[in-house]
Amino acid sequence: MAKVIFVAGTVLRLPAKDAGVVNSIVRVHSSRIGNTRSGKGQQVERREPVRLVNEATGAHTLRFAIGSGNMDIRSPTAIAADYDTCDALDIKPGEKVEIGVYRAGYFAVFKHYLNHPDWGYRLATHMGAGGLVFGIIGAVLGSASLL
User: Fold this and answer.
1) How many CA atoms lie within 13 A of 68 on its CB side?
2) Bridge partners, residue 27, by sequence
3) Over the stretch 52-111, which tens digit does the pLDDT of each residue have?
4) Tell me, what's the pLDDT at 3?
5) Do 64 and 47 form a contact (C-beta atoms < 8 A)?
6) Please, what's the b/e burial string for 62-89 (b: 16 or more CB within 10 A of its CB; e: otherwise)?
7) Which pLDDT belongs to residue 44?
8) What is the reported pTM?
9) DSSP string, 58-119
């Protein structure tokens, strides 16, 4: 498994304007947001996909990390998540928990969009993957016909 960026000890509730399946965000303390991708362990880039893992149960989900914005996240070990994120992780906002925040790789993001709850994202990903497969088949058949 990938190296943990940090472990969140508290989960706060996101405001209604940030919540929802389409946004898919998690707010982290502003000290956790870096301005460049320096690869230094404890910071994430703004809008970087992160994998949230409930260390106690193993439940996980993928969200996009952004800074605290106008939210009052006082602790660097706190995150703010919406209802869907809390439900996927089997937690309740305000509880003391251990949520591991990991960088999400390319295939984790692709898998997330293949099973996305919003059918628009899911269909677009399936169509793109199908186009890639048929493009590869066409290139192989085209190359075979030259031989």
Assistant:
1) 17
2) 66, 80
3) 999 999 999 999 999 888 888 888 888 999 988 999 999 988 888 999 999 999 999 999
4) 82
5) yes
6) bbbbbebeebebeeebbbbbbebbbebb
7) 84
8) 0.83
9) --EEEEEEE--TTS----TTEEEE-HHHHHHHT--TTSEEEEEEEE--HHHHHHHHHT-SSH
